[in-house]
Amino acid sequence: MSKRYAKLGPGEGPNYDWENDHTFVKVSGQDTDGAYTLMEDNLKASFALGLHRHDTHAETFYFLEGAVDFYVDGDWHRCTPGTTMHVPPGVPHACRVADGAPARMLMIFQPSGFDGFLAELATMTEADFADEAKMAELNARYDIVPMGSVPAHPEDRV
């Protein structure tokens, strides 16, 4: 008989070690019948994610370590350990690590799906990433609407 629950320890779960972050899927969409996905994201000192929105899913971020500058709907916020940021569907957002130092956060995607996006990215080649039509189709399938680079931060030197 299979277990009716799941337990993952530190460093366990499907993971994706990218150039700018190392993400662990802690609770997959399969575990929740599509209700949500829970992930741990270890942001490297170079991490930045351009402006984008999701039209049908919400994201909630809980910050564990370090600091992240989070741009949401035109406002910048410094998110430090213990901070929660909830981004409803349709709200543009972007982020970057603060002070060039690593950070760590939990992310909840509701409904689930982002874990599938990462799994597909992990199978792609450099040529796939360079194929604008393929990337547009993948983004559309996973409700990712790119809107540009990370907006200028008030602390940036002009």
TrEMBL record:
Residues making up the signal peptide according to the UniProt record: none
TM region positions: none
Cupin type-2 domain location: 50-109
EC code(s) of this entry: 1.13.11.24
Pfam families given in the database record: Cupin_2 (PF07883)
UniProt xrefs under Gene3D superfamilies: Jelly Rolls
GO molecular function, one term: quercetin 2,3-dioxygenase activity
Keywords: Dioxygenase, Oxidoreductase
InterPro entries per record: Cupin_2 (IPR013096), QDO-like (IPR053146), RmlC-like_jellyroll (IPR014710), RmlC_Cupin_sf (IPR011051)
Top-rank taxon: Bacteria
Name by which UniProt lists this protein: Quercetin 2,3-dioxygenase
Species whose genome carries this gene: Ruegeria atlantica
